[in-house]
Amino acid sequence: MAYSWFKAFHIIGIVVWFAGLFYLVRLFIYHIEANAEPEPARTILKNQYQIMEKRLYRIITTPGMLVTVAMAIGLLSTEPDVLKEGWLHVKLLFVALLLGYHHYCGRLMKQLAADECRWNSQQMRALNEAPTVMLMVIVLLAVFKNNLPTDITAWLIFGSIILMAVTIQLYAKKRKRDKEKLTAQIGQPQEQS
């Protein structure tokens, strides 16, 4: 019975943690893009994003991470033999990378608050894809364990995810170009007829 409780709350923790990670970096993107706004909008937006980032990180994302890790330890305590499995070692490697990503986001949040972040919004969009890839690998390992499929279907799914990430990046570049065109058009004086 303990296994089922640990597993249920582990899944809940994962959902909360990833929801926070996905939205946090999106807020970073908006925070960076606020630099292009005129005053006083720039300051108002940056202050608001800073508040939202801190609350999201401290109240949702970090507790989600802690619940996930605590429940994973609980799961392992009910089945200690699983620690000998190769698939779990790979999964734990990706979880360690995810924990590093989580803490790096906390560092980026502090840099943004101090106006010391060197990342641009395009780089942040690329960074925002990292947890998607890690989530995919972690879930596939948890479901398939040592029988992870390497057939054409698995490669098509992987390719679809990569295609989706590339499409998102291209769409972001198009939006940026369209915005620059619009700004240039607004800046030009209107011809009188």
Automatic annotation (TrEMBL):
Its main location: membrane. It is a multi-pass membrane protein. Pathway: Porphyrin-containing compound metabolism; protoporphyrin-IX biosynthesis; protoporphyrin-IX from protoporphyrinogen-IX: step 1/1. Heme binds at H10, K91. Keywords: Cell membrane, Heme, Iron, Membrane, Metal-binding, Oxidoreductase, Transmembrane, Transmembrane helix. InterPro entries: HemJ-like. Its EC number is 1.3.99.-. It is found in: Cell membrane. Its cofactor is heme b. Binds 1 heme b (iron(II)-protoporphyrin IX) group per subunit. It catalyses: protoporphyrinogen IX + 3 A = protoporphyrin IX + 3 AH2. Pfam families: UPF0093 (PF03653). One of its GO terms (cellular component) is plasma membrane. GO terms for biological process: protoporphyrinogen IX biosynthetic process. Belongs to the HemJ family. Homodimer. This is Protoporphyrinogen IX oxidase. It comes from Amazonocrinis nigriterrae CENA67. The gene is hemJ.
